[in-house]
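User: Sequence for Cytochrome P450 below. Tokens please.
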Amino acid sequence: AWFTHGCIQERRENPNSLPLPPGPKGYPIIGSFFSFPTYKAWLEYDKWFKIHGDMIYFTVFGQGFLVLGNIKRVYDIFERRSSNYSDRPRLVMLNEMMGWDYIFGLQRYGTWWRRRRRQFHDHFHPNVVNRYHPIQIDAARAFDRSVLESPERYKQHIRYTFADSILKAVYGMDVKENETYVGHAGTTTEGLASAGNPGSFLVDVFPVMKIIPEWFPGAEWKRKANEWRYLNSIVANSLWNSVKEQMKAGTAKPCIATAMMASIPDSESPASKEEELVRRDACAVGFLAGADTTISSVTSFFMAMAIYPDVQKKAQAELDRVLSGRLPEFNDRPSLPYINALLKESGRWQPVAPLAIAHMATNADEYDGLYIPKGTCVIGNAWSILHDPEIYEDPFIFNPDRFLKNGEIDSSVQDPNVASFGFGRRICPGRFFSDAALFSTMTHVLAVFDIKPSLDDNGKEIKIKPNMTNGLLSYPEPFGCRIIPRSKEAERLIRNSGLMT
Ligand code: HEM
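Assistant: Structure tokens for Cytochrome P450:
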């Protein structure tokens, strides 16, 4: 069995003998093992929806999978029946072997998860995230300066910028002194990206493979798992312990970690160790869950701007009108409808998590005359929802105008946030922080730089194909672009931006 929980279909739970949802034909025992998609599964599922309908069910070695293909299905299941569909499958590779268990995004639905999510929510809900706006503006301006110095390293600058703002907000620390941890976090999330979709590693299908030793031929995955596990334990503990030391010495800067530490009940009480662990984990998740997701979004934005120069020009024209020669601030946002539409389109065009993160059915259920077994792994295909041509005309084109009517955001067009940040009780709790990070970074780039495709040896622009990588988190495949200051005045604005913050 794949997961430690609920993988056996129990006949007595289906007293009405309802049929299972439709899906590809499987074989005895192995089920749909040979057709189980592991490469860009969202595209394969999208094809299956056209054959079997908007909800597909199949099994692989007894484990049931339900994939939901449109907004009605995800709403019915993840929102209206959220008490039954908020659990997570336990993946052997991710949870047991790579040591990702302390991250509540991957924890089972229950008290352990709820306590961490509540701590996290207290510091990331929409009414408090504006506390971090000054940090995010500083970071965006530092990003502009770094890109001016070395535009070819813009991807490293994105990582550095985001790490800087999250480190400051969560741990009150500067990225300069903590680059090692940023590197570790990057390496561990690479592991998460590759192992997070069910079926990515054979050990998920055959847990007995756990006992294979590292030195065994072909056991590279096992060596990798051990390395990721080691780095995870460093990331979980080191930054938290540093803040603890600083608090004792009276040198800690006020931040989320200090606020959380101050709220730990009396250190003599037996519960306090556990309370500390809950807070330590809630801080670490901010550092880990936010980085690569936001980085992928910003990189896709660069890719879109290089492919769609007219969109870029429109966005710059709007910024120029509103800013008249200064850099952006958060309170400019209501005056920037085209930029707001561009942000929405960035969340839709190349979703960072095309299948979100799989949920699991706690109990057997009956839905729409169909039977959903207990322990079914339930996947919302965010990619399909965000590329539904009925809702978004020409879905492969990057077109912010689809969200505008008479120069204002058209609220009748479906907001990509209904799928891009996941679903129901597990919806991304970092989305407000992320939205602000994307606004500040994208506006700071567009205000002062032009983004263009790289040139070939004959000085001709190289056409960029918007290809994305496989995995739980999907990133743009490498592409070349040039980032050039828009004018001498823009360059001066960037150089002086350090003096303004
Ligand atoms: C573009 C940026 C981001 C995207 C696209 C994104 C997307 C997602 C998705 C799809 C999920 C899974 C939801 C589900 O299970 O249905 C998720 C969960 C989560 N995200 Fe994000 N995220 C982003 C940024 C962030 C940031 C900046 C943070 C933290 C500061 C964060 C923290 C989390 C956490 C803690 C969870 C786990 C929630 C749970 O299981 O209860 N995310 N995110």
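The first strand starts at residue 55 and ends at 60.
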